[in-house]
Structure to design on (225 residues):
């Protein structure tokens, strides 16, 4: 059974940093691109970042570019999101998801982890 | 690429046929997916490649379209279908989602 479990969220002060983790199981992690999506309270879904299978290619939404870094550790079957210079509008539930290519879709999602940035 | 979903919300009864539209600001071929999200839960993939039903998703869900105009249809609304639906384009970065359509009980 495919499982994605996020951790590392919580309350952080404005300007602070946080690292989210997404532990994957039930599939060959190294064979898939992975992605982060967030959802602010009461709002819609917002794509945040994607990392390729090899890890050589990374993509970011404009609001997080230069502040967030996506990475992966295939030996640990874990996806990461390092978030620096956090702002109030980064407060959201963050989901990791498996990205199936070349057909293109997010087929499995984690349960989500809440990040709250306080001013 | 911006995605505009309509309507943003709708009220319908069990058994109704429901159609949600998603319009892209430029052509995206068939690089479109649809997701269902219930309160407090992660999104669930329904349709990918504009019209391919994800395994395990009931056949009352269907998708159509190509280029800039897409639709998600629920042929006969069931109680468990009351949720918010999102379209997503995967043609190019930044990947984007539509604003969502909340389907409520009439």
């Amino acid at each position: 059974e495919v499982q994605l479990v996020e951790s590392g969220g919580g309350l952080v002060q404005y300007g602070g940093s946080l690292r989210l983790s997404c532990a994957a199981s039930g599939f060959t992690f190294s064979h898939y691109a992975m992605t982060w999506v967030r959802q602010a309270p009461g709002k819609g879904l917002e794509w945040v970042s994607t990392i390729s299978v090899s890890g050589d290619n990374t993509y970011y939404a404009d609001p997080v570019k230069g502040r967030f870094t996506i990475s992966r550790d295939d030996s640990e079957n874990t996806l990461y999101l390092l978030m620096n210079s956090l702002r109030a509008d980064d407060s959201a539930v963050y989901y990791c998801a498996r990205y199936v290519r070349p057909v293109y879709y997010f087929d499995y999602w984690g349960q989500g982890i809440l990040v709250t940035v306080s001013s | 690429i911006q995605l505009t979903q309509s309507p943003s919300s709708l009220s319908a009864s069990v058994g109704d046929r429901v159609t949600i539209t998603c319009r892209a600001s430029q052509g995206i071929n068939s690089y479109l997916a649809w997701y269902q999200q219930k309160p407090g839960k992660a999104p669930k993939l329904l349709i990918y490649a504009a019209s391919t039903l994800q395994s395990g998703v009931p056949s009352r869900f269907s998708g159509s379209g190509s280029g800039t105009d897409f639709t998600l249809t629920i042929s006969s609304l069931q109680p468990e279908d009351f949720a918010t639906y999102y379209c997503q384009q995967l043609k190019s970065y930044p990947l984007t989602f539509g604003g969502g359509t909340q389907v409520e009980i009439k």
Observations:
- Chain B has no helices and eleven strands.
